[in-house]
Amino acid sequence: MRPVIALVGRPNVGKSTLFNRLTRTRDALVANYPGLTRDRQYGVLRHHGDSAIVIDTGGMGEETDGPGAAMHEQAGAAIAEADTVILIVDGQTGVSSGDEEIVAQLRGRGCAVHVAVNKSEGLDKNLVCADFHSLGIAAVHAISALRGRGVDDLIDAVFRDVYARRSQPHKAPEQAGVNGLDEGVDDQVAAPRGAVSVAVVGRPNVGKSTLINRLLGEERVVVYDQPGTTRDSITIPFECAGQLYHLIDTAGVRRRARVDEQVEKLSVIKSLEAIDRANVVLLVSDAREGITEQDAHLAGHVLEAGRALVLVINKWDGLEPDQRLKVKRDLDRRFAFLEFARRHFVSALHGSGVGLLLESVDLAYAAANRDLPTPELNEALHKAIAGHQPPLSRGRRIKPRYAHQGGHNPPRIVIHGNQVQRLPAAYGRYLERFFREEFQLQGTPVRIEYRASDNPFADKPNPLSERQQRRRQRVIRHAKRSKKRKRR
């Protein structure tokens, strides 16, 4: 089993920068802004044939209530899972009372602790390390997470310490291999075949993180009754009924005009990227606030990305019957273009209706990846044409000839024929609905492409037979004689 390394420290000391450096990714959101990371972020470190699980955590030691208290609990959970803790400190500011408080909390935890003095570029390493020896920790390393200086030496020391504590010789590169409980973290980095990636998106404070915690059965992500609590996209693997899922908790997406902070802009970008890489999207709306224009805008982005979709209307408990009726009418009006998506009315806080969500996720995922045999597609196409003939275009009948599947996720159907590119949008929607009902493609958009049949002789001269050439010559001679007579 691979060792687990937790990165802890005060806000804005460079934990996420070091996490991205160690995992060679950009999974952790990084900006010059304190308290940016709030939830635990997992990744895999590979170093000279060895490997370890790395956990990025939120800043510790400043806020004691609200989101700060929840962040502190998340960091504590990471420390409890860790074999080794890397305490990251700021070499520019020196030892602070916050660093001393964190060291006091680490004592008695039973895990090894290394101090990484970050932002040490341009400073005397010996003096900087000597300053932080006052924390009472022997292993102090001067590094620059941004530029990578000293990071290799730090990780070498961590692995030596881990294997010494386990009373095992240091693994040679060719013997490196891992298994066991850390497979889930590998799944986060590169999802195996069969794993369903599910992005949970919506406006701020609609209950996305509460819903994820309810699905997981634990307080995995920070929840607080304040918009903007989640700032980064966090991927969480879990298994249910033998199926592996990757839940992606995302930051709330507001209207562009209201996004003013640079950090929020970065969070929104990460949320939209999560939609693009997901297999299925859970779009969460707040029933008490109603279905808003921003909900419809997010749904449009999901549809444009071609992702399977499940609509989740949260905070359904406590609504009066007339309020529920109004919400359903708003759904029909604003989400008329999402007739293929299943709707769930739930309470993430109390759990009502949540148990059926994964069933809809499975159905949508299966529909998005379904194979559509060509003979059955052609039979369905001819049945659709028999039920409703294509309109005329410039006095000529448009003739779809045959169809085949052009891709998955979403299903893409390619229709060939004469002038099919002139089919109006209304007839395209008719075909889309027909194919969806015929093949039970519920929960996923369907893309239809048209390809006009090419005339192989369009750009080639038509060779004449000998008889046609003689006749052509006679016609030309006759035309010349007639022209001469007219001149006389």
Largest sheet, described in full? Answer: 6 strands, mixed
CATH architecture type of the largest domain: 3-Layer(aba) Sandwich
**Low-pLDDT residue intervals, each spanning 5 or more residues:** 29-35, 169-181, 187-192, 222-231, 255-264
| Gyration radius from CA atoms, angstroms | 31 Å
CATH class of the largest domain: Alpha Beta
Number of helices: 14
Q: What's the number of structural domains?
A: 3
Strands of the largest sheet, in order across it? 2-3-1-4-5-6
DSSP strand count: 17
User: What distance lies between the first and last C-alpha atoms, to the nearest angstrom?
Assistant: 108 Å
Helix content: 25-40%
Shape: elongated
Average pLDDT taken over every residue: 80
Q: At the fourth CATH level, what is the homologous superfamily of the largest domain?
A: P-loop containing nucleotide triphosphate hydrolases
Strand content: 15-25%
What is the CATH topology assignment of the largest domain? Rossmann fold
Q: What is the SS-derived class?
A: alpha/beta
Structure description:
The strands form 4 sheets. This protein has a 6-stranded mixed sheet, with helices on both faces. It has 14 helices and 17 strands. The chain folds into 3 domains: 177 residues, 3-Layer(aba) Sandwich (Rossmann fold); 178 residues, Rossmann fold (3-Layer(aba) Sandwich); 79 residues, 2-Layer Sandwich (GMP Synthetase, Chain A, domain 3), CATH 3.30.300.
